[in-house]
Design goal:
heterodimer, A: 114 residues, 6-stranded mixed sheet, 0% helix, globular, B: 113 residues, mainly beta, 4-stranded antiparallel sheet, 53% strand
């Protein structure tokens, strides 16, 4: 039973445009969500996070939106740059007492074309 | 500040052998979690340690074990290796037990033949 799902395995966008990566979850006990970026042969790099008490968090070109009623979150990258090309993972945590346990989606490969 | 380091970076073992992987967290971080990444299953949580105590464990067989030392460094051990254990093993550290943000190392690529 996959509790965190990223239904789009890949996404291709033009440089300068917006990239929108989506993530759905099933466990209503999750209270914290994170996005990681991963390049080949490297570990995931923390990008941005959001607490369930918020519906938006912004950090530079990256914005995460959370819709608790729909159990859906999205990562917006504006403007997209070729260096953003990587695999993006959404992760959830917060099942009480399990803050050190992240549940990851399967990842979305983003390609930003120059 | 140095990031999370993992050794070795690459390892080839034979079925039935055992292996020990090492992780040094970011200086000052006291919580260490381990994950397995495979093409089919994605990133899956193995276990988490804080102050030398295992706080959480994922759904992996008892062949997978770990420990944490007083300096927060951690090791994971896999005994009686199987072909399906071939994966990228990632270690992540966080400042405290209830810190949500985890910072990952580069991983150890284990190949079992």
């Amino acid at each position: 039973d996959q509790q965190v799902k990223q239904n789009s395995p890949s996404l291709s966008v033009q440089e300068g445009r917006i990239s929108i990566l989506n993530c759905d979850y099933t466990n209503s006990m999750f209270d914290y969500f994170l996005w990681y970026k991963k390049y080949p042969a490297e570990g995931p790099t923390f990008l941005i996070s959001i607490s369930s008490i918020k519906d938006k968090n912004e950090d530079g070109r990256f914005t995460v939106f959370l819709n608790k009623s729909a159990k859906h979150l999205s990562l917006h990258i504006v403007p997209s740059q070729p260096g953003d090309s990587a695999v993006y993972f959404c992760a959830a945590s917060g099942d009480a007492g399990n803050t050190g346990k992240l549940i990851f989606g399967q990842g979305t490969t983003l390609q930003v074309k120059p | 500040k140095a990031g999370v380091t993992q050794t070795p970076r690459y390892l080839i073992k034979t079925r039935g052998q055992q292996v020990t992987l090492s992780c040094s967290p970011i200086s000052g971080h006291r919580s260490v979690s381990w994950y397995q990444q495979t093409p089919g299953q994605g990133l899956q949580f193995l276990f988490e340690y804080f102050s030398e105590t295992q706080r959480n464990k994922g759904n992996f067989p008892g062949r997978f074990s770990g420990r944490q030392f007083s300096n927060s460094r951690s090791e994971m051990n896999v005994s009686t290796l199987e072909l399906g254990d071939s994966a990228l093993y990632l270690c992540a550290s966080s400042l405290l037990a209830d810190s949500y943000e985890q910072y990952f190392g580069p991983g150890t690529r284990l190949t079992v033949t």
